[in-house]
Amino acid sequence: MLSVPFATTDIHGGFAAGRGAICVDGDDLLIEVQVTVMNLWQRDAKTFRFDLTDLEEVRLKRGLFGDRITLRTRPMGLIAQVPGAAEGCLVLKVKRRHRADVDALLDRLDLWLA
Length: 114
What we know:
With 114 residues, the protein is an alpha+beta fold. It contains two helices and eight strands; from the N terminus they run E-E-E-E-E-E-E-H-E-H. It has a single domain (3-113), classed as PH-domain like, CATH 2.30.29. The strands form two sheets. Strands 1, 2, 3, 4 and 5 form a five-stranded antiparallel sheet that branches. The two termini are 22 Å apart. The mean pLDDT is 89.
């Protein structure tokens, strides 16, 4: 099971940041996130599981130093429970060195979104 590490920064108005991993497990998309509040407290990691058929859109934006993956689900409430999600979408920041893993993950997701 291929896992791609990511970061999110806009949690609780910027007072918290999240780090985690995203992977495809069979027919599910797994997102595991650990939130750190003001670089002082770490919460326990939480795992969120989504059916791949609930994904409405997956976008990739390449950058000079890293990439951004944007996930949007069909019922907006599904993604809203993940820390860092806003307005029905979740933006994951991935470092450049993980581009090969991102490409492999998106290849698996393209089979479901087509």
